[in-house]
Amino acid sequence: MLEVLNPATEEVLERLDLATVEDADAAVARAKAAFPKWRAIEPADRSHMLRCLADALDLQRESLAQLESKNTGKPIGDARGEMGMVAETFHYYAGAPERLLGDTIPVSGGVNFTFREPLGVVALVVPWNFPLTIASWKMAPALAAGNTLVLKPAGLTPLTAMEFERIALEAGIPEGVVNVVVGPGSEIGRHLTEHPDVAKVAFTGSTEVGKKIMAGAAGTIKRVTLELGGKSANVVFADADLEKAAASAPTAVFGNAGQDCCARSRILVEKSAFDEFLSLMQPVVESLRVGDPLDETTEMGPLISADHRESVAAYVPDDAPVVIRGQVPEGSGFWYPPTVLAPVSNDDRTAVEEIFGPVVVVIPFEDEEDAIRLANDTIYGLSGSIWTRNGARALRVARRIETGVLSINSNTSVRVSTPFGGMKQSGVGRELGPHALDHYTEVKNVYLATEEG
Ligand code: TAP
């Protein structure tokens, strides 16, 4: 029996029976049976069905947001934004079935052309920090390309995925096309990763589990997309708009209580602006409203679980260089205050490991070359930001930072229409934008001989 908690109150929201391996097999069998019909649906009709689903998700936006907020502890305003993105992601990929274009390639003696074909059954394994949002980044392109799917949500946050399965059926997506299985990752997730009838596994989560997924998928040469951890750099040059950079830096790392793979959790600041930057950041951090996620004014909620809070707290021992600390409410809930550590060296454990909580390190740098060296001195490469008023420098540095997603004079990372994913140990493949479709299709090349005799 799985008890699903509200991390802000520690109350039980639901008690669920956990899926067995047999249940996972049955879900794969349903998806396999549904695949030939789903892929054969006329592109315009599949497009229409996905638009109906997107409209249904839009209509259910408020109830999905309330459910996601209760199950994850994220502020209701953020949850509403995320559920808006879920519907938008389905609207975006609803246009794809009629635009899965092939090529014609000049060859001698005939005509050569390519098709983009679906893979079959895809398994989607997702984490607890943005449960339905991250699932939608995988489900929408997978379905648009003609695949059927089995989705395994994280055990801590399965509720919106289960609700999604119901909404999809009601919106007219045929039975067997979308299947949700709630069970432990080490058993059910692993089983799906190794299943011979699963053609691809798309995973978001820790780098540690990502390595296991890659190894497990090798046995059947499955296609793999991995979106993993990060330790991204927020690089602030002395010539930047320091007020703007300092006002934005806390949101970039304390959003979703720091449980965000894109969190700019290493702030690199040019030495000459170091003290000024910290004093500009201080009032912003101290005034962050941490509390009841369902209160419209709340900016940061609790961490996801008691275990996770313990793991975050272990990075901040009594002698840690805490220079700024925010507030947390008293009483039940897995609270942890926004915390700024400075100055920190880039080889300190807090600067090397992904803490995945509201703890940020601030690291001084000498010059442009030093900033690039520090930004790249990590096993990760997911996101990052550069703050400067010098456009040429911004582009020079952007070209040399080894990361999949970068912002200049901004801390945003994700848009439905642009590719998202990591370099180095932050992952393999890209989600969102047109690029995601490449990861849910195979290219088939066909040659037709036209020469007589
Ligand atoms: P994980 O522990 O990696 O879990 C992610 C998912 O994998 C969960 O559904 C989990 O199931 C399942 N899982 C666990 N062990 C598995 C195994 N051996 N085989 C197959 N599936 C398995 O991550 P998390 O704690 O949920 O999320 C935090 C981590 O995810 C952070 O490191 C963060 O950076 C990363 N993350 C990355 C991104 C992107 S886009 N790069 C986005 C969000 C999060 P159960 O939970 O049910 O056991």
SSE arrangement:
Blueprint: E1 2-5, E2 12-16, H1 21-40, H2 43-59, H3 61-72, H4 76-94, E3 104-105, E4 110-118, E5 121-125, H5 131-144, E6 148-152, H6 159-170, E7 178-180, H7 185-194, E8 200-204, H8 207-218, E9 223-227, E10 233-236, H9 242-254, E11 266-270, H10 274-286, H11 306-313, E12 322-325, E13 339-341, H12 349-352, E14 359-365, H13 368-376, E15 384-387, H14 391-400, E16 407-408, E17 427-428, H15 435-438, E18 441-449
Parallel strand pairs: 5-6, 5-8, 6-7, 8-9, 10-11, 10-15, 11-14, 13-14, 15-16
Antiparallel strand pairs: 1-2, 3-4, 4-18, 9-17, 12-13
Helix pairs in contact: 1-7, 2-4, 3-4, 4-5, 9-10
The protein binds 7-thionicotinamide-adenine-dinucleotide phosphate (TAP).
Question: What's the end-to-end separation, in Å?
Answer: 70 Å
Q: What oligomeric state best describes the polypeptide chains here?
A: single chain
Tally of separate helices: 15
Widest β-sheet, arrangement of strands? 12-13-14-11-10-15-16
Shape: globular
User: Strand-residue fraction?
Assistant: 15-25%
Mean pLDDT: 98
* Main beta sheet strand tally, sense and closure: 7 strands, mixed
Name the hetero compounds present: 7-thionicotinamide-adenine-dinucleotide phosphate
Number of strands: 18
Our Rg estimate from Cα atoms comes to 23 Å
- Class computed from helices, strands and strand pairing: alpha/beta
Contiguous low-pLDDT stretches (5 residues minimum) are none
Helix content: 25-40%
